[in-house]
Design brief:
9 helices, 8 strands, about 220 residues, isomerase, alpha/beta, carbohydrate metabolism, globular, Ribul_P_3_epim-like, Ribulose-phosphate 3-epimerase
Length: about 220
């Protein structure tokens, strides 16, 4: 299983985002958290900044929308040229149609679920999505502790994806670090979002450490 590392710029220096993007050139993606202070109690950045990040980033954008009215807003982020756009299942009236609109605008369509949200309805429409993001913390703030209680839900998602034969990535976001990577990967994650675990030191070395922690699971 290919493991992808997606550093979150929520932990980067917001005054120097272009520089911070180039510090993670060895990553597979860059996780861009968009928060609106309504769906979650925090405010980060919006569409114009995502557009500019797309223009200067050396790695593909993995945009995570923690915003209300996902049905209307998510396709606009796909239009920026982002590689992947994730909206929250809880913020969409018609998740399948929203995913289709994202795809029609050229991005991979992904759906996210909070720790307490059942994943059953998402798994019933696997062919609608290119990725499922399982939050391993409550969305809205960085630096929270990993929630092992999400792992059974992740394992269920991995079983469903494998049984379907579809190429649906399974991403985890929240508290991901060298010590939590093994549990996440064993439970079925193949795309790992890490914020302070990358930007809290020398990013290239931290990314390499995360890859090694994931590879160790495969060797065990």
């Amino acid at each position: 299983m290919t493991i992808r590392i997606s550093p979150s710029i929520l932990s980067a220096d917001f005054a120097n985002l272009e520089r911070e993007l180039h510090r993670i050139e060895t990553a597979d993606l860059v996780h861009v958290d968009v928060m609106d202070n309504h769906f979650v109690p925090n405010l980060t950045l919006g569409l114009p900044i995502v557009q500019r990040l797309q223009e200067v980033s050396p790695v593909p954008l993995d945009v995570h929308l923690m915003i209300t009215d996902a049905d209307t807003e998510a396709p606009k982020y796909a239009e920026t040229g982002a590689s992947s756009v994730t909206f929250h299942f809880e913020a969409a009236d018609d998740p399948v149609a929203t995913a289709a609109a994202i795809r029609s605008n050229g991005a991979r369509a992904a759906v996210a679920v909070k720790p307490g949200t059942p994943i059953t309805q998402v798994l019933h429409h696997l062919d609608a999505y290119d990725m499922i993001l399982l939050m391993t913390v409550e969305p809205g703030f960085g630096g929270q502790s990993f929630m092992p209680s999400v792992m059974p839900k992740l394992a269920d998602a991995r079983a469903a994806v494998d049984a379907s034969g579809l190429d649906v990535w399974l991403e985890v976001d929240g508290g991901i670090a060298v010590d939590t990577v093994p549990e996440a990967v064993r439970s079925g994650a193949d795309t790992l979002v890490a914020g302070s675990a990358v930007y809290g030191g020398e990013p290239a070395a931290r990314i390499a450490d995360l890859r090694e922690a994931a590879a160790a699971v495969a060797r065990s």
